[in-house]
Amino acid sequence: MKISIAAAIGLLALSVTEAVKVNPLPAPRNITWATSGPVKIDGNFKIVGPKHDILTKAYARHANLIKKERW
């Protein structure tokens, strides 16, 4: 029995899309970072130093993420 080229391409495309959907890492169940509890950071925390556009934007993104995720 011969497999047509179209069927072979279809099977290949199906296997590729299935491979992309798989996450090889397991979902975390319980994460313990430290025994002392959360670290309190003032909401007005700022880094003092020379202005650098890339670092300023990166810090702002991370600070917003930390506030959003409530780390």
From TrEMBL:
Keyword list (alphabetical) reads: Signal
Signal peptide start-end? 1-19
The name this protein carries in UniProt is Uncharacterized protein
Q: Which organism is it from?
A: Modicella reniformis
